Automatic annotation (TrEMBL):
It comes from the Bacteria. The lineage of its organism: Bacteria, Pseudomonadati, Bacteroidota, Chitinophagia, Chitinophagales. It comes from Chitinophaga silvatica. Keywords: Cell outer membrane, Membrane, Signal. Gene3D superfamilies: 1.25.40.390. This is RagB/SusD family nutrient uptake outer membrane protein.
Length: 529
């Protein structure tokens, strides 16, 4: 999908859907810009309109890449006990520390705004594309599928962080939509599922060539599985309906069984996240970056700014490789004098630490002084010295795609949902042991109870997906945030950084931004903000 970014650059230059045209005395149509009415006239314009729906994924409120020194997708990890954003970039540490309010800016404002920008662009395409002259019906169907997938993703983002939001399913019209009240969250999620089901029916199983990276049937099905997993979890499944877990398990299993995709685990965990291995068999959907047209700042953030610095609590979570036991277990084989030796290989595949080899040199505790740790995942930097032309990447020069959905997560979704629905049967063990086989660790012990398996699955999600911005949503949906977030955060050596606070009466959802309430007084605020 790298060629789509080239279209986007041209799109930006033409001023897509500009609305500020001045009418001449003769009321002639302007020729130096597009309006809503003049844009949707050719198949090429429709294709560019679809690219604009994708491009919002790189906005600062979504996964980032367009703003200065922005790496939103990496900063999402700092909302959790896994990492720390010392400079409070984009107000991430304000949220993590429990000080968030309706007047908080940064991510709280822009996630809401940018998700709705995406919704509006998708709605416009869905309303307009049927009327574009010269369109091939098969192309129209596929475009609608992609737009429905993206609209589902944008609305799922809104529902996950803010709860119910105004549900708008037509092209933006401020007179009609500007004062709408919030729609119940359940209805928003119902629409997300409908969009994803429609997308799955419209989209191909895979693409080739320059179309690789577009939403596929598998991507729609995988996102549906994530949505259903969230809906089955304690935060939203307040009546503990077992059928919701069964539905989530079935949705994940459908992705696992989908023929023609080639989905599987990539051979090497660390290499999965290298640019050279982008769009590999484990990737189901990702956000595409390409310098100089649409790069990110992932490398700059990881190696220089260190504003996604891993914390001691995450480091202590990784088991010992040979025994498969936590380091707190006396039988694990852990040596406090050599704390990083013999650990789960995903530790060294995710971050670096004092005494490690990084960029061809041994580092001390001052190299990443904020916590002593530096994130490697989603950065090209690792143990070997980088080539000279990549040694000091700056703002917007990184090109590694950010993976939104990958097959390992599907295996974990299935294991979690199936365990909750039916207990730790053989299929749960099989799914989880595939992850262990990749890293050469012992299989999960037989005979675990449902509760014991639940804890092992939650641990496995944390270490497998660390650095990918998912753990914050996991601890919220499990209603565990009020426990794990009310804690001190520590450097590699146990030095105190700060105490975080999580108010269970309000912090499971973010506030509706005050800027949005100023525009629309009918937006009811979330409780206790």
């Amino acid at each position: 999908m790298k060629n789509i970014k080239k279209i986007y650059v041209l799109l930006a230059c033409t001023g897509y859907l500009a609305t500020g045209c001045n009418k001449s005395l003769l009321n002639t149509e302007p020729h130096d810009r597009y309006t809503e009415e003049t844009f949707w006239r050719t198949p090429e314009a429709a294709a560019a309109g679809l690219v604009s729906c994708y491009s919002v994924l790189r906005n600062d409120g979504m996964y980032g890449g367009k703003g200065s020194n922005n790496a939103t997708a990496l900063w999402d990890e700092t909302l959790s006990p896994n990492a720390y954003n010392q400079t409070d970039s984009y107000s991430f540490n304000t949220v993590a520390s429990g000080a968030v309010s309706s007047s908080t800016g940064g991510i709280v404002v822009n996630r809401y705004k940018d998700a709705y920008t995406g919704v509006g662009r998708c709605n416009t395409l869905l309303d307009r594309v049927d009327g574009v002259p010269g369109m091939d019906p098969a192309a129209v169907r596929k475009m609608k599928g992609e737009a429905r997938f993206l609209r589902g993703l944008y609305y799922f983002t809104l529902a996950s962080y803010y709860g119910g939001v105004p549900l708008i399913l037509e092209a933006p019209d401020n007179d009609k939509h500007g004062k709408l009240p919030r729609t119940a969250r359940e209805l928003v999620v119902k629409q997300v599922i409908e969009d994803l089901d429609s997308a799955a029916n419209m989209l191909p199983v895979k693409y080739t060539g320059g179309d690789i990276g577009r939403a596929t049937k598998g991507a729609a099905m995988a996102l549906k599985a994530r949505v259903l997993l969230y809906e089955a979890s304690d935060l939203f499944n307040t009546t503990k309906e077992n059928a919701k877990w069964a539905a989530a398990a079935a949705a994940a299993k459908a992705v696992m069984d989908l023929s023609g995709t080639g989905y599987d685990l990539f051979t090497d965990y660390r290499s999965l996240f290298y640019q050279a291995n982008e769009n590999n068999k484990e990737v189901i959907f990702d956000v595409q970056y390409l310098f100089p047209k649409q790069g990110s700042s992932f490398d700059l953030i990881c190696t220089q700014y260190n504003t996604n610095a891993p914390l001691l609590d995450l480091a202590n979570t990784y088991y010992m490789k040979s025994t498969g036991l936590p380091i707190s277990n006396p039988a694990s084989g852990y040596d406090p004098a050599k704390p990083y030796e013999g650990r789960d290989p995903r530790l060294t595949g995710t971050f670096t630490f004092p005494g490690d080899i990084y960029k061809g040199a041994k580092i001390d505790n001052k190299r990443f002084a904020i916590t002593g740790y530096g994130m490697k995942k989603y950065s090209l930097y690792d143990s070997i010295a980088p080539p000279k032309d990549k040694a000091d990447l700056k703002d917007g020069q990184s090109e590694i795609n950010f993976i939104v959905l990958r097959f390992a997560d599907i295996l974990l979704m299935y294991a979690e949902a199936q365990n909750e629905a039916a207990g730790p049967d053989g299929t749960v063990y099989t799914a989880l042991n595939r992850l262990r086989d990749r890293i050469g660790m012992p299989h999960f012990p037989a005979g675990l109870s449902k509760e014991e398996m639940r804890q092992e699955i939650r641990h496995e999600r944390r270490v497998e997906l660390a650095g990918e911005g998912l753990y914050y949503n996991d601890i919220r949906r499990w209603k565990a945030a009020e426990i794990v977030m009310n804690a001190n955060i520590l450097k590699y050596d146990g030095t105190f950084i700060e105490k975080r606070v999580f108010n269970a009466d309000r912090n499971y959802l973010w506030p509706i931004p005050q800027t949005e309430k100023d525009l629309n007084p009918n937006l009811e605020q979330n409780p206790n903000y």
